[in-house]
């Protein structure tokens, strides 16, 4: 009997949270339940999720930035359907795939100055590739990364993570990796001057906090890397493919000369795992330096036809939707709308954005009662305050958002680039109402927050006690 996937999805719509808890990650499932994020979404279109009751939700999370061209994009979906019907001879391995050559050619056309493209399964895989390429081509061991960086959670990428919470307990990860201050050219030059650094890897806008560097920082970083014989690696995994209003975020800084650029996330439209590492001929010649070394680095699924079709279709969809232009227009509407609220609401400390990558940072208010509430919540948990915004946005206004990182007071918005005027109004109206409620202390918003915080403390204490026993 053939597998009826539609029937399977329909039948599993009820117990899917229980399946996750029983077979995948019970603690993650429980945490979603605790904050009310255990919703059942059965359909999606553009920037909207749809639950089993037909209610529409505004998706300001965008699958962590995968859906730049909107969820269930018709262009990508049609291309993948046509590909499956074509029954191609994919992944021959000892062969030269047509579609990977075509996607590489298209990426080089959009990102001039690079000679070759290595295809990966994910962004973290691309970072691992960049580490290997840099070490072999420079014959150096050191890798510099920036404070608050996030480049993935595989072992090498994890070694370049600026947050200790991700690294703790995993031992020594990558000898020679060193952290420097983000957006600090003097600190970078000091580290490079030792001439033992293979690569400096950096996000042009940091995802954990939406931290935007000073004008000229990326350009000067590239110049210093060339001066000291270090490869300059730009991680565009989340910021690339028009997210910030340019095809690459580093383009905002003018003529930035990178040696390696890493892409992923939106490259397949969210359908298929895929990533790409663009690099230059002099790096290639030192990696794949002979016939014997022509496959010294490879990936079984890296050049799979389905992933390559998804990549080609995703680029087409970005063009069709004029994504970069819309990211700029809608991003400015969001950013300016939020900035206007900063004058009214004490908790809003800063609003930062480039295109549709938006950070809303919160800080201690001036009034005594609100400051006392702020201090009490942070005493319970440094991760708690932003839940007072994300939880009611979902529960009361059907808007999905995320906190930008552990122990940060910043909410990040990275919605599909198909966001409309109506969507922006929906978010700004809801956010304003949440802010009004949050600036009333005492009040229901604070009662719920303290309840969650106290429960979290109890669970933490129970876990410590159980571990001790």
- The CATH homology group name of the largest domain: Type I PLP-dependent aspartate aminotransferase-like (Major domain)
Determine the fraction of residues in helical runs and give it as a percent range: 40-55%
Number of helices: 18
Structural class by helix and strand composition:
alpha/beta
Sum up the overall morphology in one term. globular
Q: Give the distance, in angstroms, between the N- and C-terminal Cα atoms.
A: 51 Å
Strand content: 5-15%
CATH architecture verdict of the largest domain = 3-Layer(aba) Sandwich
Write down the domain tally: 2
Strand order of the largest sheet: 4-10-9-8-7-5-6
Question: Measured on Cα atoms, how large is the radius of gyration?
Answer: 23 Å
DSSP strand count? 15
| CATH topology label of the largest domain | Aspartate Aminotransferase, domain 2
* Unreliably modeled segments: 464-469
Structural write-up:
- With 469 residues, this protein is an alpha/beta fold.
- It has two domains: 35-70 and 322-463, Aspartate Aminotransferase, domain 1 (Alpha-Beta Complex); 74-320, Type I PLP-dependent aspartate aminotransferase-like (Major domain) (Aspartate Aminotransferase, domain 2, 3-Layer(aba) Sandwich).
- 44% of the residues lie in helices and 14% in strands.
- It has helices at residues 5-11, 16-23, 26-34, 62-65, 74-86, 98-110, 123-138, 155-158, 164-167, 185-192, 217-227, 281-287, 305-320, 323-342, 368-380, 387-397, 421-438, 444-468; strands spanning 41-45, 48-51, 56-59, 116-120, 142-146, 177-180, 197-202, 231-235, 260-263, 275-279, 348-354, 357-362, 399-400, 402-403, 410-413.
- Strands 4-10-9-8-7-5-6 form a seven-stranded mixed β-sheet, sandwiched between helices. A four-stranded mixed β-sheet has the order 1-2-3-13.
- α7 crosses α12 (281-287), α14 (323-342) runs parallel beside α17 and α16 (387-397) crosses α17 (421-438).
- It starts with a helix and ends with a helix.
